[in-house]
Amino acid sequence: MADVALRKVVKRYDDVEAVRGIDLDIADHEFIVLVGPSGCGKSTTLRMIAGLEDISDGDIMIGGDVVNDVPPKDRDIAMVFQNYALYPHMTVAENMSFGLRLKHYPKAEIKARVTEAARLLDITDLIDRKPKQLSGGQRQRVAMGRAIVRNPKVFLFDEPLSNLDAKLRVQMRIEIKKVHQKVRTTTVYVTHDQVEAMTLADRVVVMNKGRIEQIGTPNELYHKPATHFVAGFIGSPAMNFIPCRLEDVGGALQLRLTDRIAFALPPARAARYSALPRTDKLLLGIRPEHLTESHAHLGPGVEPFDTVLDVTEPMGMETLVYFGLDGTPVCGRVDPNAGATDGAPMRLAMDLNNMHLLNEETGVVL
Amino acid sequence: MSTLAIDKSGPSRKVKYGSMSRDRAWALRWSYFFLVLFAIFFLTPPVYMLITSLKSSAEISAATNPWWVFHPTLSNYVELLTSNQFLRFFWNSSIVSIVVVIVTMLISIPAAFALARMKFWGSATLATGVFLTYLIPDSLLFIPLFKMLGVVQDYTGITLLNRWYVLLFIYPTLTVPFCTWIMIGYFASIPKELDEAALIDGASWLQTLTRIFIPVALPGLIAATIFAFTVSWAQFLYPLVFTTSIDQLVLPVGITTTLIKGDVFNWGQIMTGALLGAAPPLIIYAFLMDYYIAGLTAGATKG
């Protein structure tokens, strides 16, 4: 096991820069998830760590050694692919032991390791089957088993759950977490699914357009996003962004959303934003769970307003409500018993204690 | 969908189903019609060969119904199978075809692997080039080839022309490009992740080829093998040009040179020889047909 470090890593394809200078330190035993939309450079980064792609510039270190020119087989890593990449002509046991057999491990040790990995992944019964006789989830386990038996320094996962159906994905997510708790191998995991990223990671690396937007624990990313992109990417349904401006009304700072709706900022927020130029184009970032039905005893900083709902989506434990504020579509989450109906007026409340204020041009969260 | 909607559309759907099954019935009838037509068309020559091979020379030249055997005899078969000459042709053909298949596979498999998987300067151009060489007809190639081998023979002092083993150098010019080309296709259909997984597992290029690619692309390999064997076995022009002595001939040339004397055609034995000559490919096809079809359709769909 080992730590992994990326220093100003760049990947260029002809004229296109897929990865634009990434710095990342991954501690021993850590579970890191690289997440971002397609084409953000997350898979390329993973493949550079694996050695499947050359590095155009910068350094990659595994266990303190620069591995830029070390071939994949000598990096002591194991990788799990999106389409499993099991060898179709080999049984499960042969698939798992292929790497060990190539390295001429003693037969007894190979058998012991395969048996142990199969037990860990609960695939002992499948050991003599061929990949095509397995379901998607079973194949995924075998692919993980192939990685585990090698006992590598680093596990690399490239969107391993994308080919599974939604239910199985949740189940395998938990399996992966369990396996990591047992083997504690340093893991780099790539996904475009922010829920997977949040649930699995010790730390999440949000990437966009070849750069790292933010690195942090799932909670940090959710509650303290650094940029517009992270704020919008993490969380489902996504954070609402409403154009707004700051106003001084009788010595107090006020946030104006529309001609009709303006809220006085809570003191803590007012102090934080008071130095901002009043001319800046701003966006209010507010998560749907902070837009709820209004009631008689609203706490400090929670402001009621009236709106007309466009669409409601009953989810069971909550109902999502969609409405417009001066043409900007907004989503809120209300209690299923709050009486939200399509096309009906409703009084909602916005929790400004959990608001974010963004500079519309720079995308920075202020 | 509510049940109401289904009830409403009931009558019209019934009519549609009826017309669909009628369409299908007609499609089937036409299919059978053309299949039978093709079967008759393609089976007539071999059947005629079989009938003729069972006749004596006298019956062949007699003005009786050519589609019926009145006095069946195996004399043609006995004569051919006891003739050293014919057995010599058979032996020459077998050894040439088998060695050519081996040589072809030894060249084509690594070539196809390299062209399909290793990125190197000019690899795409080379792949196209390999195929282009296949497009040049052998009727144009044989003269320069003859000249080339003549030069090699003069230079090295090794007799090549008019020796059966010269065909071992000539036939691969036909089989290697085509086999390489179709195997590039099979190898290319293997997911890239498979060799990446092998690479991470610690396999060298050669191990990736022998332990992953060859077993996975086995149906394709067998298809290529059958192709190479058929081409070598049935090749006529090259052996006709490059070999002339009776003991150096392969089957197709041997039959036509020895059984046609001037304008005298020994039809019974020609047909017998052709039928016996067709037997080995037929047997190989029969055994490998399933693989062959699987190979031809592999990669069409995923999984």
Overview of this protein structure:
The complex is a heterodimer of chains A (366) and B (303). By secondary structure, chain A is an alpha+beta fold. Chain A has nine helices and 20 strands. Chain A has helices at residues 42-50, 92-102, 107-121, 136-149, 166-183, 194-200, 218-223, 228-233, 267-273, and strands at residues 4-13, 16-26, 31-35, 57-62, 65-66, 77-80, 154-158, 186-191, 203-208, 211-216, 240-249, 252-256, 262-264, 282-286, 291-293, 302-314, 319-325, 328-334, 345-351, 356-359. In chain A, the strands form four sheets. Chain A has a six-stranded mixed beta sheet, sandwiched between helices. A five-stranded antiparallel beta sheet of chain A has the order 13-12-11-14-20. In chain A, strand 7 (154-158), helix 5 (166-183) and strand 8 form a beta-alpha-beta unit. The two termini of chain A are 39 Å apart. In chain A, 39% of the residues are buried. The mean pLDDT of chain A is 89. By secondary structure, chain B is an all-alpha fold. Chain B has helices spanning 3-8, 10-53, 57-61, 75-81, 84-117, 123-135, 138-156, 167-170, 172-188, 192-201, 205-216, 218-234, 237-242, 251-259, 267-297; strands at residues 260-261, 264-265. In chain B, 77% of the residues lie in helices and 1% in strands. Chain B is globular. Chain B has 15 helices and two strands. Chain B has a two-stranded antiparallel ribbon with strand order 1-2. The interface between A and B is medium-sized, with 24 and 18 residues.
